[in-house]
Predict the structure.
Amino acid sequence: MDKKRNYYVDWWKIKKSSVISVIVVFLFLGLLVGGTWWAMKNNWFFAGQENANAPKDAARLISFEGDVRITRAATRETEKVSKDTFLLAGDTIQTQADGKAQIRMIDGSVLTVRPNSTVVIRDSASIFGGTNVKVELGDGQINVKTQDQNEASNNIVEVKQVENKLQSQTDASFNSSSNGGEIRISRGGVESNVGGEKTVIKDGEFASINQNGRLSPKERLYEPPKLIAPPTLEQVLTTSNGTADLTFRWQKSDGTTNFSFSLEVASSPFFVKDGMVIQRDSLTAPNFTMGNIAPGVYYWRVRGTASSGQTTEWSEPFRFTIVKREGNETLTASDWQSENIGGKVYIISGKTISGATVRILGRETFAGADGSFRIQVSVPGPEATVEISDEHGNRNRYVLSVESGKVVKQF
């Protein structure tokens, strides 16, 4: 009879550093897997890649987000875009309210299709040592950036029967709606052709197109308003009733021109209808106060309409967060120092509680184990507002003189 075998294992003495190392390895692998999944979901690996199976004269989709669809000219079938999508002459690309796409045309130009837009690829062909590229904007907004072009090449955007030939090194945006169209030139220029009558619109100029396809006289291009407050990434604590009141402030792009303003605040960065919190038009002052904002993440943007009738593009949206107040402690700070390292750039440092978040002019850092912090910022004026907060909703603000490093005001 075989004897029963017994196995004995001595207890191992495991170092604390070994346990920490194993935990770090597993955390790293988890982050790697999660990051890879997120990058694939958001087309990071796809962006910039070209589909080797695409025909020679096909335009290539280089990035997209949200709901973007293609209607094929050959089959009239509509399909959602993917990493393998390419576009041929006759195809239509359509973005929904949360959709956006970038297309590289065969001449190297980049066509950006904004949300709620429809674009038809009218021509995409290589011929006689050059290229012919033509798109028609049905409705919505597009932006086109061209590279150097030879004399045998044409890059044309058609808006309301107006053909706009883009020059080399041009950055232009086009709008189209039931009320007409708009042309904005940030760099370079376009030659607009209306029934054989040609007009060159250069950088820094704007022109509108009426419903009959006639071009208005050119005028100076106005930039979008500059957003001031709340600054991007701002965190605002609620009051005792669980909501917050907030004043939105912005600056018009030209001090000598009268503007009215449109303001939008939404819970979606795409400002879709379902996520819209507030819309206000015809505001005459560059500010608006909104009350009883519930905790959450929000986005806001502004555009202006000049007395001439020209409407600017929307400003790039700022993001802010309404945070529910849970704590009631005052966060103190000391040992303030401000060091100028050239021009309007300063390094501001100090000391507060360990782990606190320190924000200055849209930039942020965390206080170290000893409470010390150090942050480099570009300060437009003689003072800077420093906000210190923690995870419990405690917060304090200091107005600091960047020249002396002394606290001017605390609130």
Notes: The chain has a mean pLDDT of 87.
